[in-house]
Specification:
By secondary structure, this protein is of the alpha+beta class. It contains two helices and four strands. It has helices at about 40-50, 65-70, and strands spanning about 20-25, 50-60, 75-80, 85-90. α1 crosses α2. The relative contact order is 0.19.
Length: about 100
């Protein structure tokens, strides 16, 4: 009762978000394969979808990803990754973006 999973099968750019999610797990292919998914514009859409204090997590810790997240206003922290991944990234949305 305390957890709901929302899975959308739609073009991400067409979904209208209203700051209602606590966490986004972003597992797109890396920026070399899908560069259009790792831009400040995309991360801005995630910021719109997240509640204040919401979190976006990803396994990608590349510099261009961190730069794009910071540009939107996220606060970043590198974390140890799960088995098979050395590290991961937690991006927290401030109270206001």
């Amino acid at each position: 009762p305390l957890f709901h999973l929302h899975k959308y099968r739609a073009d991400f750019r067409s979904i209208q978000f209203q700051a209602r999610f606590d966490i986004v797990y972003f597992d797109a292919f890396n920026p070399e394969v899908q560069p259009h998914l790792w831009t400040p514009e995309v991360f801005s859409r995630f910021a719109q979808a997240l509640k204040p204090g919401g979190i976006l997590v990803t396994y990608c810790v590349k510099g261009i990803v961190k730069q794009a997240l910071r540009e939107v206003g996220f606060t970043l922290k590198r974390l140890p990754g799960p088995p098979g991944k050395r590290e991961m990234l937690r991006a927290t949305k401030p109270d206001r973006i």
